[in-house]
Amino acid sequence: MGLKIGGRVQKVNGREVSYGEFVEKYMAQNQPVVLTGLMDDWRACKDWVSPNGKPNLHFISTHFGKSKVQVADCGTREFTDQKRIEMTVSEFVDHWLHLSSANNGGNCDCGAAGKPLLYLKDWHFVKEYPEYIAYRTPVDFSDDWLNLYLDKFHMHNDPDTYSERNEISCSDYRFVYMGAKGTWTPLHADVFRSYSWSANVCGKKQWYFLPPSQHHLVFDRNMKSTVYNIFADVSQSKFPGFEKAVWWECTQEENEVIFVPSGWYHQVHNLEDTISINHNWFNGYNLSWVWDLLLKDYTEASDYIEDLKGCDDFEELCQRNLAANTGMNFYDFFIFIVRFAFANVAVLHKLGHGKKEPSRKSSEMIQHIYFNLESIRSIAVKMKNIDAGNRQGVLLDLRKNLEDHSFLELYAAVGKTYELIHEQSEVTQALSQCKELTFSSLIGSQVQSSKDLVTFIDDALTELGGAFSG
Predict the structure, then answer these.
(1) What stretches of 247-402 show up as alpha helix (H) in DSSP?
(2) Which CATH fold would you assign to the domain 4-281?
(3) Where along the chain do its domains lie?
(4) Is the pTM of this model over 0.90?
(5) Where in the numbering of this chain does the JmjC domain appear (predicted)?
(6) pLDDT, tens digit, for every residue of 72-126?
Protein backbone atom coordinates (compact mmCIF):
# COMPACT_ATOMS: atom_id res chain seq x y z
CA MET A 1 0.00 0.00 0.00
CA GLY A 2 1.36 3.42 -0.96
CA LEU A 3 1.45 6.53 1.17
CA LYS A 4 -1.77 8.43 1.70
CA ILE A 5 -1.14 11.96 0.40
CA GLY A 6 -3.58 14.44 1.87
CA GLY A 7 -1.90 17.80 1.33
CA ARG A 8 0.65 19.71 -0.70
CA VAL A 9 2.92 22.44 0.58
CA GLN A 10 1.98 25.88 -0.73
CA LYS A 11 4.45 27.81 -2.90
CA VAL A 12 4.49 31.61 -2.74
CA ASN A 13 6.70 34.40 -4.05
CA GLY A 14 8.86 35.30 -1.06
CA ARG A 15 9.41 38.84 -2.35
CA GLU A 16 5.68 39.50 -2.07
CA VAL A 17 5.33 38.25 1.52
CA SER A 18 6.15 40.70 4.31
CA TYR A 19 7.78 39.52 7.51
CA GLY A 20 4.53 40.08 9.40
CA GLU A 21 2.59 38.00 6.86
CA PHE A 22 5.15 35.19 7.05
CA VAL A 23 4.89 35.13 10.84
CA GLU A 24 1.09 35.23 10.85
CA LYS A 25 0.49 32.62 8.14
CA TYR A 26 3.37 30.18 8.60
CA MET A 27 5.63 30.64 11.63
CA ALA A 28 2.95 31.29 14.25
CA GLN A 29 0.66 28.67 12.66
CA ASN A 30 3.55 26.16 12.40
CA GLN A 31 2.78 25.49 8.72
CA PRO A 32 5.28 24.59 5.98
CA VAL A 33 5.70 26.75 2.90
CA VAL A 34 8.00 27.06 -0.11
CA LEU A 35 9.28 30.56 -0.87
CA THR A 36 10.59 31.58 -4.28
CA GLY A 37 12.58 34.63 -5.35
CA LEU A 38 14.86 34.84 -2.31
CA MET A 39 18.14 33.49 -3.74
CA ASP A 40 18.74 35.66 -6.81
CA ASP A 41 21.83 37.44 -5.46
CA TRP A 42 23.47 34.49 -3.68
CA ARG A 43 27.13 33.92 -4.48
CA ALA A 44 26.63 30.18 -3.99
CA CYS A 45 24.12 30.12 -6.86
CA LYS A 46 26.84 31.44 -9.17
CA ASP A 47 30.02 29.80 -7.90
CA TRP A 48 28.64 26.38 -6.99
CA VAL A 49 26.55 25.76 -10.10
CA SER A 50 27.88 24.84 -13.55
CA PRO A 51 26.40 26.37 -16.72
CA ASN A 52 24.44 23.14 -17.25
CA GLY A 53 22.73 23.60 -13.87
CA LYS A 54 24.58 20.77 -12.13
CA PRO A 55 26.85 21.12 -9.08
CA ASN A 56 30.22 22.69 -9.91
CA LEU A 57 32.17 20.02 -8.08
CA HIS A 58 35.51 21.20 -9.46
CA PHE A 59 35.04 24.66 -7.91
CA ILE A 60 34.00 23.21 -4.56
CA SER A 61 36.89 20.75 -4.45
CA THR A 62 39.43 23.40 -5.48
CA HIS A 63 38.35 26.03 -2.95
CA PHE A 64 37.08 23.96 -0.02
CA GLY A 65 38.54 20.51 -0.62
CA LYS A 66 40.59 20.28 2.59
CA SER A 67 37.57 20.53 4.90
CA LYS A 68 36.80 17.40 6.88
CA VAL A 69 33.13 16.50 6.69
CA GLN A 70 30.64 13.85 7.75
CA VAL A 71 29.27 11.81 4.87
CA ALA A 72 26.26 9.50 5.14
CA ASP A 73 26.23 6.11 3.44
CA CYS A 74 22.61 6.09 2.28
CA GLY A 75 22.59 2.33 1.85
CA THR A 76 23.74 1.42 5.36
CA ARG A 77 21.66 1.90 8.49
CA GLU A 78 23.42 2.42 11.82
CA PHE A 79 21.05 2.52 14.80
CA THR A 80 18.39 5.12 13.93
CA ASP A 81 20.33 6.91 11.16
CA GLN A 82 22.56 6.28 8.19
CA LYS A 83 26.15 5.22 8.79
CA ARG A 84 28.51 8.20 8.89
CA ILE A 85 32.00 8.31 7.38
CA GLU A 86 34.56 11.08 7.82
CA MET A 87 36.47 12.27 4.76
CA THR A 88 37.64 15.47 3.12
CA VAL A 89 35.47 17.37 0.67
CA SER A 90 37.93 16.60 -2.12
CA GLU A 91 37.71 12.86 -1.34
CA PHE A 92 33.92 13.08 -1.39
CA VAL A 93 33.97 14.93 -4.73
CA ASP A 94 36.39 12.37 -6.21
CA HIS A 95 34.02 9.58 -5.17
CA TRP A 96 31.07 11.42 -6.72
CA LEU A 97 32.90 12.15 -10.00
CA HIS A 98 34.13 8.57 -10.30
CA LEU A 99 30.63 7.18 -10.00
CA SER A 100 29.20 9.88 -12.23
CA SER A 101 31.66 9.02 -15.00
CA ALA A 102 30.73 5.36 -14.61
CA ASN A 103 27.17 6.51 -15.23
CA ASN A 104 28.23 8.36 -18.42
CA GLY A 105 28.15 11.76 -16.76
CA GLY A 106 24.44 11.82 -16.05
CA ASN A 107 22.75 12.33 -12.73
CA CYS A 108 24.61 9.84 -10.63
CA ASP A 109 22.10 7.57 -8.90
CA CYS A 110 25.32 6.00 -7.68
CA GLY A 111 23.71 3.14 -5.82
CA ALA A 112 22.84 1.54 -9.14
CA ALA A 113 26.56 1.07 -9.83
CA GLY A 114 26.93 -1.08 -6.74
CA LYS A 115 29.02 1.56 -4.99
CA PRO A 116 28.17 3.38 -1.75
CA LEU A 117 25.64 6.14 -2.23
CA LEU A 118 27.24 8.98 -0.25
CA TYR A 119 25.55 12.15 0.97
CA LEU A 120 27.57 15.01 2.51
CA LYS A 121 25.54 16.35 5.45
CA ASP A 122 25.88 18.89 8.24
CA TRP A 123 28.92 20.69 6.82
CA HIS A 124 29.52 23.74 9.06
CA PHE A 125 30.45 25.86 6.06
CA VAL A 126 29.80 29.29 7.57
CA LYS A 127 31.96 28.50 10.61
CA GLU A 128 34.80 27.26 8.42
CA TYR A 129 34.69 30.00 5.79
CA PRO A 130 33.30 33.15 7.43
CA GLU A 131 34.94 35.43 4.84
CA TYR A 132 33.25 33.68 1.93
CA ILE A 133 29.71 35.05 1.91
CA ALA A 134 27.91 32.24 0.09
CA TYR A 135 24.44 33.57 0.91
CA ARG A 136 22.50 35.86 3.19
CA THR A 137 19.83 34.46 5.47
CA PRO A 138 16.40 35.56 4.23
CA VAL A 139 14.78 38.11 6.53
CA ASP A 140 11.89 35.76 7.29
CA PHE A 141 14.34 33.38 8.98
CA SER A 142 16.62 35.93 10.61
CA ASP A 143 15.08 35.90 14.12
CA ASP A 144 17.36 32.95 14.80
CA TRP A 145 18.17 32.81 18.51
CA LEU A 146 20.09 29.56 18.22
CA ASN A 147 22.77 30.68 15.77
CA LEU A 148 22.96 34.26 17.09
CA TYR A 149 23.78 32.76 20.48
CA LEU A 150 26.27 30.17 19.23
CA ASP A 151 28.18 32.89 17.37
CA LYS A 152 29.04 34.37 20.80
CA PHE A 153 28.79 31.55 23.37
CA HIS A 154 29.26 27.80 23.70
CA MET A 155 26.02 25.94 24.25
CA HIS A 156 27.51 23.81 27.01
CA ASN A 157 28.54 25.63 30.15
CA ASP A 158 29.94 22.55 31.90
CA PRO A 159 33.39 21.72 30.43
CA ASP A 160 32.89 18.06 31.35
CA THR A 161 29.61 17.80 29.48
CA TYR A 162 30.90 17.35 25.96
CA SER A 163 34.07 16.32 24.17
CA GLU A 164 35.89 18.78 21.94
CA ARG A 165 34.74 16.81 18.90
CA ASN A 166 31.10 17.10 19.87
CA GLU A 167 31.51 20.77 20.78
CA ILE A 168 32.56 21.40 17.19
CA SER A 169 29.55 19.44 15.94
CA CYS A 170 27.18 21.87 17.69
CA SER A 171 29.23 25.03 17.10
CA ASP A 172 26.37 26.28 14.94
CA TYR A 173 23.39 24.91 13.05
CA ARG A 174 24.10 26.30 9.58
CA PHE A 175 24.88 23.55 7.12
CA VAL A 176 25.66 22.71 3.52
CA TYR A 177 24.35 19.42 2.09
CA MET A 178 25.59 17.86 -1.16
CA GLY A 179 24.33 14.65 -2.69
CA ALA A 180 23.88 12.85 -5.97
CA LYS A 181 20.54 11.78 -7.38
CA GLY A 182 19.14 9.04 -5.16
CA THR A 183 20.64 10.25 -1.89
CA TRP A 184 18.11 10.68 0.88
CA THR A 185 17.50 11.41 4.56
CA PRO A 186 15.45 8.98 6.69
CA LEU A 187 12.27 10.00 8.51
CA HIS A 188 13.01 12.36 11.40
CA ALA A 189 11.97 15.49 13.26
CA ASP A 190 14.58 18.22 13.50
CA VAL A 191 17.08 18.72 16.32
CA PHE A 192 15.61 20.56 19.36
CA ARG A 193 12.27 20.36 17.46
CA SER A 194 13.53 23.56 15.89
CA TYR A 195 12.33 25.19 12.73
CA SER A 196 14.51 24.63 9.71
CA TRP A 197 14.85 26.16 6.30
CA SER A 198 16.46 24.53 3.29
CA ALA A 199 17.46 26.33 0.08
CA ASN A 200 18.20 24.43 -3.12
CA VAL A 201 21.27 25.99 -4.74
CA CYS A 202 20.85 23.45 -7.53
CA GLY A 203 18.96 20.24 -8.05
CA LYS A 204 15.55 19.01 -6.93
CA LYS A 205 14.22 17.44 -3.71
CA GLN A 206 11.08 15.52 -2.89
CA TRP A 207 9.73 16.07 0.64
CA TYR A 208 7.22 14.01 2.60
CA PHE A 209 5.78 15.63 5.74
CA LEU A 210 3.69 14.35 8.62
CA PRO A 211 1.87 16.98 10.73
CA PRO A 212 2.60 16.97 14.49
CA SER A 213 -0.95 15.85 15.27
CA GLN A 214 -0.15 12.52 13.58
CA HIS A 215 3.42 11.94 14.75
CA HIS A 216 2.34 9.11 17.07
CA LEU A 217 1.40 7.07 14.00
CA VAL A 218 5.04 6.55 12.98
CA PHE A 219 6.13 5.35 16.43
CA ASP A 220 6.23 1.76 17.58
CA ARG A 221 3.82 0.35 20.15
CA ASN A 222 6.03 1.55 23.01
CA MET A 223 6.47 5.08 21.56
CA LYS A 224 10.26 4.56 21.63
CA SER A 225 11.37 4.33 18.00
CA THR A 226 10.03 5.62 14.69
CA VAL A 227 9.80 4.27 11.18
CA TYR A 228 13.18 4.57 9.46
CA ASN A 229 12.13 4.59 5.79
CA ILE A 230 8.52 5.27 4.86
CA PHE A 231 9.01 3.48 1.52
CA ALA A 232 10.37 0.27 3.04
CA ASP A 233 8.22 -2.69 4.04
CA VAL A 234 7.05 -1.23 7.35
CA SER A 235 6.00 -3.85 9.90
CA GLN A 236 2.32 -3.42 10.75
CA SER A 237 2.76 -5.35 13.98
CA LYS A 238 5.61 -3.09 15.14
CA PHE A 239 4.15 0.17 13.77
CA PRO A 240 0.38 -0.40 13.92
CA GLY A 241 -0.54 3.21 13.17
CA PHE A 242 1.65 3.75 10.11
CA GLU A 243 -0.97 2.92 7.47
CA LYS A 244 -3.31 5.54 8.97
CA ALA A 245 -0.83 8.39 8.46
CA VAL A 246 -1.83 11.07 5.95
CA TRP A 247 1.18 12.82 4.44
CA TRP A 248 1.90 16.14 2.79
CA GLU A 249 4.30 16.21 -0.13
CA CYS A 250 6.32 18.81 -1.96
CA THR A 251 8.73 18.94 -4.88
CA GLN A 252 11.34 21.63 -4.20
CA GLU A 253 13.03 23.02 -7.30
CA GLU A 254 16.31 24.90 -7.77
CA ASN A 255 16.31 28.39 -6.17
CA GLU A 256 13.41 27.56 -3.87
CA VAL A 257 13.52 27.74 -0.07
CA ILE A 258 11.34 25.52 2.09
CA PHE A 259 10.29 26.39 5.65
CA VAL A 260 10.00 23.29 7.85
CA PRO A 261 7.99 23.96 11.03
CA SER A 262 8.59 22.45 14.45
CA GLY A 263 7.62 18.85 15.09
CA TRP A 264 6.80 17.92 11.48
CA TYR A 265 8.41 14.54 10.76
CA HIS A 266 9.81 14.45 7.25
CA GLN A 267 11.73 12.28 4.81
CA VAL A 268 13.65 13.85 1.92
CA HIS A 269 14.93 12.44 -1.39
CA ASN A 270 17.24 14.09 -3.92
CA LEU A 271 15.65 13.64 -7.35
CA GLU A 272 18.71 15.16 -9.05
CA ASP A 273 22.31 15.95 -8.09
CA THR A 274 21.68 18.58 -5.44
CA ILE A 275 23.38 21.17 -3.23
CA SER A 276 21.36 22.79 -0.47
CA ILE A 277 21.93 25.23 2.39
CA ASN A 278 20.08 24.40 5.61
CA HIS A 279 19.63 26.12 8.98
CA ASN A 280 18.04 24.89 12.20
CA TRP A 281 16.72 27.72 14.36
CA PHE A 282 14.27 28.71 17.03
CA ASN A 283 12.87 31.85 18.59
CA GLY A 284 9.95 32.99 20.71
CA TYR A 285 7.40 31.30 18.46
CA ASN A 286 8.69 27.75 18.94
CA LEU A 287 10.63 27.99 22.22
CA SER A 288 7.97 25.82 23.86
CA TRP A 289 8.80 22.99 21.43
CA VAL A 290 12.41 23.06 22.61
CA TRP A 291 11.43 22.96 26.27
CA ASP A 292 8.90 20.15 25.73
CA LEU A 293 11.57 18.03 24.02
CA LEU A 294 14.09 18.69 26.79
CA LEU A 295 11.56 17.70 29.44
CA LYS A 296 10.58 14.51 27.59
CA ASP A 297 14.19 13.49 27.00
CA TYR A 298 15.11 14.31 30.60
CA THR A 299 12.33 12.06 31.86
CA GLU A 300 13.57 9.23 29.64
CA ALA A 301 17.19 9.79 30.71
CA SER A 302 16.32 9.71 34.41
CA ASP A 303 14.10 6.64 34.00
CA TYR A 304 16.91 4.84 32.18
CA ILE A 305 19.27 5.15 35.17
CA GLU A 306 16.60 5.00 37.87
CA ASP A 307 18.57 2.35 39.75
CA LEU A 308 21.20 5.04 40.49
CA LYS A 309 18.69 7.45 42.01
CA GLY A 310 20.24 7.17 45.46
CA CYS A 311 23.60 8.51 44.23
CA ASP A 312 24.56 12.05 45.23
CA ASP A 313 25.35 13.02 41.65
CA PHE A 314 22.25 11.45 40.08
CA GLU A 315 20.89 14.78 38.83
CA GLU A 316 24.26 15.80 37.37
CA LEU A 317 24.44 12.46 35.57
CA CYS A 318 20.95 12.94 34.14
CA GLN A 319 21.88 16.41 32.89
CA ARG A 320 25.12 15.15 31.37
CA ASN A 321 23.24 12.42 29.50
CA LEU A 322 20.60 14.92 28.40
CA ALA A 323 23.26 17.23 26.94
CA ALA A 324 24.93 14.34 25.12
CA ASN A 325 21.70 12.94 23.67
CA THR A 326 19.65 16.06 22.98
CA GLY A 327 22.31 18.73 22.41
CA MET A 328 21.70 20.76 25.56
CA ASN A 329 20.49 20.23 29.12
CA PHE A 330 18.35 22.21 31.55
CA TYR A 331 21.30 24.35 32.69
CA ASP A 332 22.39 25.17 29.14
CA PHE A 333 18.85 26.08 28.17
CA PHE A 334 18.26 28.15 31.29
CA ILE A 335 21.41 30.22 30.75
CA PHE A 336 20.44 30.60 27.09
CA ILE A 337 16.98 32.04 27.84
CA VAL A 338 18.31 34.29 30.63
CA ARG A 339 20.86 35.85 28.27
CA PHE A 340 18.16 36.37 25.65
CA ALA A 341 15.90 37.96 28.25
CA PHE A 342 18.74 40.31 29.23
CA ALA A 343 19.45 41.16 25.58
CA ASN A 344 15.80 41.84 24.75
CA VAL A 345 15.36 44.03 27.84
CA ALA A 346 18.51 45.95 26.89
CA VAL A 347 17.22 46.59 23.36
CA LEU A 348 13.80 47.55 24.73
CA HIS A 349 15.42 50.02 27.12
CA LYS A 350 17.38 51.65 24.30
CA LEU A 351 14.29 51.94 22.12
CA GLY A 352 12.46 53.80 24.86
CA HIS A 353 15.38 55.86 26.13
CA GLY A 354 14.71 59.51 25.36
CA LYS A 355 11.86 58.81 22.93
CA LYS A 356 8.59 60.73 23.14
CA GLU A 357 6.50 58.91 20.56
CA PRO A 358 7.63 55.70 18.82
CA SER A 359 7.08 55.40 15.06
CA ARG A 360 4.91 52.64 13.62
CA LYS A 361 8.00 50.57 12.79
CA SER A 362 9.40 51.16 16.28
CA SER A 363 6.08 50.05 17.73
CA GLU A 364 6.26 46.80 15.74
CA MET A 365 9.76 46.21 17.07
CA ILE A 366 8.65 46.93 20.64
CA GLN A 367 5.73 44.50 20.33
CA HIS A 368 8.14 41.89 18.95
CA ILE A 369 10.34 42.24 22.03
CA TYR A 370 7.32 42.11 24.35
CA PHE A 371 6.33 38.86 22.68
CA ASN A 372 9.85 37.45 23.12
CA LEU A 373 9.90 38.29 26.83
CA GLU A 374 6.45 36.84 27.38
CA SER A 375 7.51 33.66 25.57
CA ILE A 376 10.62 33.33 27.75
CA ARG A 377 8.54 34.04 30.85
CA SER A 378 6.05 31.28 30.03
CA ILE A 379 8.90 28.77 29.74
CA ALA A 380 10.44 30.00 33.00
CA VAL A 381 7.10 29.40 34.75
CA LYS A 382 7.07 25.82 33.45
CA MET A 383 10.66 25.34 34.63
CA LYS A 384 9.79 26.82 38.01
CA ASN A 385 6.99 24.30 38.45
CA ILE A 386 9.45 21.39 38.27
CA ASP A 387 12.42 23.23 39.78
CA ALA A 388 14.35 22.95 36.49
CA GLY A 389 17.37 25.05 35.63
CA ASN A 390 18.17 25.87 39.24
CA ARG A 391 21.74 25.01 40.04
CA GLN A 392 23.91 26.04 42.92
CA GLY A 393 26.60 28.43 41.72
CA VAL A 394 24.92 29.43 38.45
CA LEU A 395 24.26 33.15 38.77
CA LEU A 396 23.66 35.56 35.92
CA ASP A 397 24.15 39.19 36.80
CA LEU A 398 22.82 41.85 34.41
CA ARG A 399 25.50 44.39 35.32
CA LYS A 400 28.29 41.85 34.74
CA ASN A 401 26.77 40.78 31.43
CA LEU A 402 26.78 44.39 30.27
CA GLU A 403 30.52 44.41 30.94
CA ASP A 404 31.08 41.14 29.05
CA HIS A 405 32.27 41.52 25.44
CA SER A 406 30.50 38.37 24.21
CA PHE A 407 27.19 39.46 25.70
CA LEU A 408 27.53 42.95 24.24
CA GLU A 409 28.06 41.38 20.82
CA LEU A 410 24.96 39.22 21.31
CA TYR A 411 22.97 42.27 22.40
CA ALA A 412 24.11 44.22 19.33
CA ALA A 413 23.34 41.27 17.02
CA VAL A 414 19.84 40.94 18.46
CA GLY A 415 19.23 44.66 18.01
CA LYS A 416 20.51 44.68 14.44
CA THR A 417 18.37 41.65 13.61
CA TYR A 418 15.23 43.43 14.76
CA GLU A 419 16.32 46.56 12.89
CA LEU A 420 16.51 44.47 9.73
CA ILE A 421 13.18 42.74 10.31
CA HIS A 422 11.30 45.93 11.12
CA GLU A 423 13.19 48.20 8.69
CA GLN A 424 14.52 50.33 11.50
CA SER A 425 17.76 52.27 11.15
CA GLU A 426 17.06 54.89 13.79
CA VAL A 427 18.14 52.72 16.72
CA THR A 428 21.61 51.88 15.37
CA GLN A 429 23.25 54.76 17.18
CA ALA A 430 21.49 53.89 20.40
CA LEU A 431 22.59 50.28 20.16
CA SER A 432 26.19 51.35 19.67
CA GLN A 433 26.04 53.14 23.02
CA CYS A 434 25.20 50.00 24.99
CA LYS A 435 27.99 50.52 27.54
CA GLU A 436 26.16 53.62 28.75
CA LEU A 437 23.06 51.64 29.70
CA THR A 438 21.45 52.55 32.96
CA PHE A 439 18.52 50.48 34.08
CA SER A 440 17.67 52.11 37.39
CA SER A 441 16.56 49.25 39.60
CA LEU A 442 16.99 46.66 36.82
CA ILE A 443 20.74 47.13 36.54
CA GLY A 444 21.27 45.22 39.78
CA SER A 445 19.17 42.24 38.67
CA GLN A 446 20.59 38.80 39.40
CA VAL A 447 19.07 35.56 38.17
CA GLN A 448 19.87 32.21 39.76
CA SER A 449 16.57 30.37 39.34
CA SER A 450 13.58 30.23 37.04
CA LYS A 451 11.63 32.09 39.73
CA ASP A 452 14.22 34.91 39.57
CA LEU A 453 13.83 35.02 35.79
CA VAL A 454 10.05 35.40 36.03
CA THR A 455 10.51 38.24 38.52
CA PHE A 456 13.11 39.97 36.32
CA ILE A 457 10.85 39.89 33.26
CA ASP A 458 7.85 41.11 35.26
CA ASP A 459 9.89 43.99 36.67
CA ALA A 460 11.29 44.87 33.25
CA LEU A 461 7.89 44.92 31.57
CA THR A 462 6.45 47.00 34.41
CA GLU A 463 9.28 49.53 34.39
CA LEU A 464 10.01 49.75 30.68
CA GLY A 465 6.43 49.35 29.53
CA GLY A 466 5.73 52.80 30.89
CA ALA A 467 8.29 54.30 28.52
CA PHE A 468 6.02 53.48 25.56
CA SER A 469 2.61 54.22 27.03
CA GLY A 470 1.03 57.48 26.11
Answers:
(1) 287-304, 314-326, 330-352, 360-385, 398-401
(2) Jelly Rolls (2.60.120)
(3) 4-281, 329-468
(4) yes
(5) 126-298
(6) 999 999 999 999 999 999 999 999 999 887 776 555 555 555 689 999 999 999 9
